[in-house]
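Q: For a teaching handout, I want to show students what a protein-ligand complex looks like in token form. Below are the inputs, and the small molecule is coenzyme A. Please produce the holo structure.
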Amino acid sequence: MSPQPAAHFIHDFRQAAPYIQYLRGKTVVLAISSQVLLAERLPTLVQDIQLLASLGMRLVLVHGTRHYLDRMLQQSGSELRYHQGRRITDAAALALVKQACGLVRFDIEAALSATPSQTPDRRNPRLRIASGNFLLAKPLGVLDGVDMQHTGSIRRVDHEAIRQRLNEGDVVLVSPLGQSLSGKSFNLGLDEVAAALALSLQADKLIFLSSEAGVTDAEQRIISELTSAEATELLARGHYSSDMTRMLKTAIHVVENGVRRAHILSGMADGSLLAELFTRHGHGTMLAQAPFMRIRAADHRDIGDIIRLIEPLEAAGVLLPRSREYLEAHIGTFSVLEHDCHVYGCVALKHFADSSSAELACLAVSPDARDSGFGEYLLEYVISQARQQGAHTLFALSTHTGEWFDERGFQAASLDELPPERQQQYRANKRASKIYKLAL
Ligand SMILES: CC(C)(COP(=O)(O)OP(=O)(O)OC[C@H]1O[C@@H](n2cnc3c(N)ncnc32)[C@H](O)[C@@H]1OP(=O)(O)O)[C@@H](O)C(=O)NCCC(=O)NCCS
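A: Here is the structure, written as tokens, with coenzyme A included.
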């Protein structure tokens, strides 16, 4: 007998499938802090970046230089000067910024050029990396009487040129240095560059990889999802480091201006990027403008997802079998629960001729999303729909889940309490389901 493949691997790979599909062709800006690069996380991080590129994601990488530069300035005996949280870049510092950018770029380029060691065909074309004069900058000028010298801000991003490179399948690598129209160079902030790239490219995601594990609550637990309004509230309480404050402000700004998601996660933990992108719980903090979860009326495009949810339950005898034809004909009675664009649950609300009662049916939550309250949300949704439509009683018929309904206020009911048309179906299908009712 051949050995069983590792169960965890199969489970995790299957769970990742919808995310792999979803992320193909999506534009992602990855902002990598210089701390992550200094901590020698590059070799493993690059493997993950190569994997994302091979899965068809359009990647724009932007790296920081701050910690390299601090080190170089200290070694040269120079003072580190900041104003309003921005470095004051004098001529000597600018020369070091250019050096640091060169150093980091070459390291990233070299690491990305390596063919993954387990690639079956090592003649596969290497990942191509594109760089260029993508950032048009201008001087930041004099702030509160302080001349910021060669510290700049972004005037424009040449997003057309970047798009062209992405269309050709290249990974784009951007340094936080911009050029002015008069040919001068300006030192730029990583957050500002990352935000400008994400906004001008209308990216699907902006991801910060830093030494911070994510946004934490008062008990120092990582908050895996935040709306921009919740993040703004947390910021107002102000107990975050200056790095986190900057990332969080940038993340709020981009999601409120069209970037679908921003993520803040640790670049220090091996595989954090993969865990964030391909698992439901992620690894760091994900921000969006609107709440992540919603329940909506199903339409024909949802039939595949509904079948995926209910087929195993039908096979186990938990749910009554429903054919694709049945689903097509009755899709108007179904609602689906979506979380971060993936369907995790479904429920149907059936009406009877007498209209004073309705039935909750086909309630299912994907096994990997159970115990998160999704079942309860679907139930609340159906209850409010049934009320709106004038029903006084909601029935639920179940062979395995009676206790769940019991704990949510349903009571046992007898067959003759069901509307006559439903009694006939009940007798015909011989499932001997238990009948529950809820007064609305
Ligand atoms: C029933 C079901 C929809 C609940 O979904 P869910 O998203 O996990 O629900 P919630 O997160 O709101 O509730 C989870 C709680 O219900 C409990 N629960 C789950 N199934 C249960 C069952 N069959 N009997 C009793 N309790 C159950 C869980 O243990 C958990 O309890 P806890 O909060 O004390 O840990 C889901 O388990 C499912 O899809 N089951 C298979 C299909 C089914 O039975 N459908 C109903 C027939 S119409």
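A: Two things your students might notice: The first helix runs from residue 7 to 23. The pocket of coenzyme A is lined by residues 313, 318, 361, 363-365, 370-376, 396, 398, 400-401, 403-404 (CB under 6 Å).
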